Amino acid sequence: MDDFLDKLPQMDLMRSEKMTLVQLIIPVESAHRCVTYLGELGLLQFRDLNADKSPFQRTFANQVKRCGEMSRKLRFFKDQIDKAGLRCSPRHELEPDIELGDLERQLADHEHEVLEMNSNSEKLRQTYNELLEFKIVLQKANGFLVSSNAHATGDETELHEGTYSNNGFIETSSLLEQEMRPEPLNQSGLRFISGIINKDKLLRFERMLFRATRGNMLFNQTPSDEEIMDPSTSEMVEKIVFVVFFSGEQARTKILKICEAFGANCYPVPEDTTKQRQLTREVLSRLSDLEATLDAGTRHRNDALNAVGYSLTKWMTTVRREKAVYDTLNMLNFDVTKKCLVGEGWCPTFAKTQIHEVLQRATFDSNSQVGVIFHVMQAVESPPTYFRTNKLTNAFQEIIDAYGVARYQEANPAVYSVVTYPFLFAVMFGDWGHGLCLLLGALYLLARERKLSSQKLGSFMEMLFGGRYVILLMALFSIYCGLIYNEFFSVPFHIFGGSAYKCRDTTCSDAYTVGLIKYREPYPFGVDPSWRGSRSELPYLNSLKMKMSILLGIAQMNLGLILSFFNARFFGSSLDIRYQFIPQMIFLNSLFGYLSLLIIIKWCTGSQADLYHVMIYMFLSPTEELGENELFWGQRPLQILLLLMAFIAVPWMLFPKPFALRKIHMERFQGRTYGVLGTSEVDLDVEPGSARGHQEEEFNFSEIFVHQLIHSIEFVLGSVSNTASYLRLWALSLAHSELSTVFYEKVLLLAWGYENILIRLIGLVVFAFATAFILLMMETLSAFLHALRLHWVEFMGKFFHGDGYKFKPFSFALISDDDE
Fold first, then answer.
1. Contact 128, 294 (CB under 8 A)
2. C-alpha pair distances (Å), 131 with each of 123, 271, 537
3. Chain-centre distance of CA 694, in angstroms?
């Protein structure tokens, strides 16, 4: 048997790649180039030899800090380009590689230039906004001042010391002279303050003015005809022009303080029409000059950003790679002479030759006189787990890794999940019409694979695109199971020939519930279309799907136990085979394997035996005659034998293994044997070729016994609960079928029964939305999650430890934008 198993060809994904712990001794002058070339190869995972040091205590901390600062500057440029709405496509011609120091100087110069232009632009924009506000106030306040002309003369009512939110909005000497001109001391006359305020602050502003002056003021307002850009947020803001009439110096002081508190900008408006025209002409002239200056500044700034944008992608990639190189160099240690860096890491065994060639090329390119020393070390800890996957298997491997990363060279469930996962999904989702819809979606993702892979997708779309091959297989298996169930949006078709049933006479030509008799061989593939709508449709399909669910569940759980045997054999744990695998197989198949056998025999013979009665009385009255429930000769003594084997298997799982482990430990302790104990319970980290097995560990018999007790109880109870858990295949399949039937009969057919075209269209739309959102989205997600549960718990729980850790090589291809 062992010879036969040894001759079987190995599966690529069945076991993780063999890993080797290697040591590198690299001369300092070629260290950077060596690590860079290894990052391009991407097959070496470095170990951190400076784990006890903080990031600031490491050798290349300054270089990492410089790269971080350059990354900040590049992100600043990217934000500025996005903010300006520029589209800078990278240059297609080859650009020479730039040194890190030169890049750092260029980025500093560009940043200084852009910051200076931003500062000047912000000042100009603020001045422009204030002049624009002044123009609007001059235009709008004139109407209020004309009506108040009878109350005071122009020179007495003009406010010459108008306050400003920023003193830089007026630069002409005439306006400044007007601002500083002394005001006639007329405390009893009517005076006014004009200005502009944000619309959202107007109501509170007016209420505060009323309370502060105790109602002794007149507040006039009018909306501005144009929105004004806020320089800080670059958003257009709607503002309101106001004029407040009041009397007295104390009221003027209060109003000015309230304007300052609410961010209202006040501007002097003369009542004299000649002065208003003069001011307006002056403001418009300044606005025209500022617009030209702002446009020229914006063009100059966009030119500078475009010059940066052409090389931005390449620069970001360069900085990211350099930072990753220096982060990796920080994991290395200096040797005693301080002339070489010493590093350790894991690599796949097949990659040793490639790594050696890369190191030789790096030594040659760096003109180093001393080559890199590359040699294999003895491993102490457990190696990382590495599976080579492709586009198809990668998604299934990610599903398994979401539960737990496989222990080093442990049997990989992803090999079998490529088939079993979409198949169990399809058992619950079986409808070849819905399967075709899923297939179209998967084909769309595959057709746009190259384009979508280069785009930044949202979280939901990224998840769909990553699982495109999973969706493809789920769709194909759903079509297959839908053909077996003979359901196309719940409608049966005579695809594989005519029905095996026909009417007994001419009176039942339209009958579906009575009068049908079988007149020829069964329907060649799948469920006979005549079952649809018959009186016994639901009992028949329930019985079929429930028994099929049990058969599939027992088969998959047995597969899990068989994989536990191959795991134990691979790791050389004979105790796990004798005292775990064998009793578990006996217990599971003595009860539920026997139930599966009865189901198959009943299907083949057409017997009317009650399997519920058989299984219940197998425990309650094993010696009682079966009567009409007997399916084959010798069934009663076989049931007694199977029941005894199941009872014997429980203590077989529980007691021998802890005592056998204790005996082996005592023999080793007394020096009578020195063999490595090959069992997962004594040393969970021991792997083939590992030095850990030679280390002495404390043996706690009570802990091992309790662990074995828990494991045995869990398996015995889990055999029942896990088998029942597979009945979800029947339940979800039934729910999906009945929902499809309800939407088809109670929505589409009901609407089609009316002659009104509008009602038919409404029914068709409701049916389409119900199919898309309930059956194709919610039901797909439900079946996906239930298939996930069956694999994670019922299947993988039989053999999978999942306590390993992933192989994460230093690779430039794996560096993402978030790693900055």
1. yes
2. 12, 19, 83
3. 42
Query: Based on C-alpha coordinates, what's the Rg of the chain?
Result: 41
How far apart, in whole angstroms, are the C-alpha atoms of residue 135 and residue 80?
Answer: 31
- Whether the pLDDT of residue 543 is over 50: the answer is yes
How far apart CA 267 and CA 130 sit, in angstroms, is 9
pLDDT band at 456 (very low <50, low <70, confident <90, very high): confident
pLDDT (0 to 100) of residue 424: 96
> In 3-state terms, the chain is what percent helix, strand and coil (to 5)?
60, 10, 30
Three state DSSP letters for 724-738: HHCCHHHHHHHHHHH
What is the Cα–Cα distance from 361 to 345, expressed in whole angstroms? 19
Which residue do the tokens 């769909």 mark?
A: 464
State which amino acid sits at residue 186.
N
Question: Is the Cβ–Cβ distance between 366 and 356 less than 8 Å?
Answer: no
Q: What is the pTM of this model?
A: 0.78
Identify any residues that bridge with 241 across adjacent strands, giving them in sequence order. Answer: 196, 222
- The answer to whether the beta carbons of residues 491 and 480 sit under 8 Å apart is no
Q: Which of 287, 380, 388 is nearest to 809 (CA)?
A: 388
From CA 651, how far away is CA 664, in angstroms rounded?
A: 20
Task: Give the Cβ contact number of residue 415 at 10 Å.
Answer: 20
Task: Kindly state the DSSP code that residue 798 receives in the 8-state scheme.
Answer: G
Per DSSP, the three-state class of 169 is coil
Residues 6+ apart with CB under 8 A from 476: 422, 435, 439
Strand partners, 194: 243
411-449 pLDDT per residue, tens: 999 999 999 999 999 999 989 999 999 999 999 999 999
CA 77 → CA 65, 74, 105, 475, 695, distances in Å? 19, 5, 15, 45, 56
The conformation of residue 492, written as its DSSP 8-state character, comes to -
Query: Could you tell me if 233 and 248 are in contact, meaning their C-beta atoms sit under 8 angstroms apart?
Result: no
Q: Give the full edge-to-edge strand order of the sheet including 190-198.
A: 218-223, 239-247, 190-198, 265-266
| Position 379 confidence tier, pLDDT thresholds 50, 70, 90 | confident
| DSSP code for 9 | P
Average pLDDT score, the chain: 84
pLDDT, position 589: 95
Q: How many CB atoms lie within 10 A of CB 431?
A: 29
pLDDT of res. 154? 38
Is residue 21 a contact partner of residue 344, using CB atoms and an 8 Å limit? yes
Backbone angles phi, psi at 246, to 5 degrees: -155, 180
**Distance from the Cα of residue 120 to its chain's centroid:** 43
- Greatest CA separation for the chain: 126
Both tokens of 123, joined, read 């000042």
Residue 495: what pLDDT? 87
**In contact, 684 and 739? CB cutoff 8 Å:** no
Is 145 exposed, middle or buried (CB count within 10 Å of its CB: 0-12, 13-18, 19+)? Answer: buried
pLDDT for the residue numbered 1 = 56
Q: Are 106 and 319 in contact (CB under 8 A)?
A: no
User: Is the Cβ–Cβ distance between 264 and 196 less than 8 Å?
Assistant: yes
Task: Quote the tokens at residue 258.
Answer: 């309230």
| Long-range contacts of the stretch 443-452 (C-beta < 8 A, 24+) | 443/472, 445/471, 446/472
d(CA 394, CA 467): 9
Confidence at residue 232, expressed as pLDDT on a 0 to 100 scale: 67
What residues contact 299, with CB distance under 8 A and at least 6 apart?
Answer: none
* 234 pLDDT higher than 80: no
Contact present, 637 and 622 (Cβ < 8 Å): no
Determine the pLDDT at residue 175: 42
Q: What's residue 269's pLDDT?
A: 84
**Phi and psi at residue 493, to the nearest 5°:** -135, 150
Residue 607, both tokens = 């017997």
Q: Which of the given ranges, 271-275, 380-384, 458-462, has the highest pLDDT on average?
A: 380-384
Helix H or strand E segment including 461:
helix 459-466
CA distance linking residue 648 with residue 584, whole number of Å: 11
